[in-house]
Every structure is written in structure tokens, then in C-alpha cells.
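Course assignment 3, question 2. Fill in each field.
Student: A.L.
Task: Predict the tertiary structure for the chain below.
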Amino acid sequence: MAGLVAEAVQQALTQHGVLLDAQALVSASAMAGAVAAALPFLPQAQRLAIISLKGGWTELTSEFFRTTADKIASGGQAGGESLDGSPTAGPRKHASRPLAERASELQSMLIEDWAGEVAGSTYLEERLRIPRSTLHRWQRRGEVVALRKGGRKHVFPIAQFVDGRPAPGISEVLAAITNPRLAWFWLTRPSAELGGRIPIEMLCEDMIEDVVRIARTLS
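Answer field:
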């Protein structure tokens, strides 16, 4: 798949007269192929987050290239060589932004742009057979992630449900990270403290202890 996409992209760039040197042309095509080949194999939460992105791809891609170029220039690429040709031990760990700093940013963003697939109580009752009274009881008790949308309406990320119930450990995470948006943002992103795994996927697999421990340290 990666090879086919790379070949098609290279032909398209050439046909449209894009001014790139030969090596840049090959690199651009290879990267497009790698992205297309990797997407189907991402965890569900990551695919949903990517699919929900409605725009801003140019800015997002430019930021990716800037970050990658800085990482390579600093000798932080994994399993490769530094600029002087010497092998590197692996990627350097960069400190991630504190979770609390993202609070205002998430408040101003549309839920659909970052939270993945969400649904209201009507959909959950019809499709997952979760009675509204049960859903609201879970919400009052802090046992389910409920994201405010608009005035008083709440929607619920679908990825948190396993067999019609919130994944085990969600209540403990919400007790540690009390802002639901921050909690869900953290739950659906790869965590360096968890070896790059996605916390919500670990909860869905009953791997609760490590997720809750890290959530408490973040709080």
C-alpha cells in the first residue's frame, strides 16, 4: 500500500509541475505512502480523532514537519544517525506540556475536532441500550465521561463504553483529573508514562492499576 500511494503521489507531483528536487520528491511520496499505510492500523480512538478533524490539515502537517526537522537537527531521531554520522541511541524524550495548560485550549475547541465519536443520551439508549436514567446516574456519580456541548447539553464519548458500561477505572481517572475535557483528552492520547499506550484502550482491556496511578500523578 505504501509503495502504491508513494508512486501515485510522485506521478501527481511531477504531472502538476511541482518544483522539488529529486530527493525531496521521493521523500514527499514516501511520507504520503507511509501515512496511508499506517492509518488503517491505528487504535480506534486515534482513528476517530483523526477522522473527526474537519480542517487545518495544512497547518497540522507544517507543524509536524517543523517538529520533525527540529528533532532530527538535535540528533533525536530513533535508530538512525546524527548529523555527524554517528549512531544515536534513540529518540530523546521531550517534556510534554502540562495537562492543565490545555484546559482553556480545549474549552474553546469543538468537541468533534478532538474528542472522537460522541453521542447523546438518545443515541446511547437506542444503540447501546443504556437507559437515560442509568446514564444520568453514572454522570452524577462521576463514573462516565460527559462533555458539555452548548448550554446544558452533554455528550458522551463512545469509546469509553464496554458492553454497555463505562470502562473500569474511568471513575478513578475522573476523581484524579476532575476536568472531564482534560480527562478525556489524556485518556485518548498516547502516554509516555505508559510506554506510549493509550490509557482508554488499557482500561478497556482491564489494565486499570497503571492508568489510575499515572492519572493521579498528573493531577
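Instructor remarks: The beta strands are 118-119, 147-148, 154-157, 161-162, 165-166. The chain is about 50% helix and 5% strand.
Grade: pending
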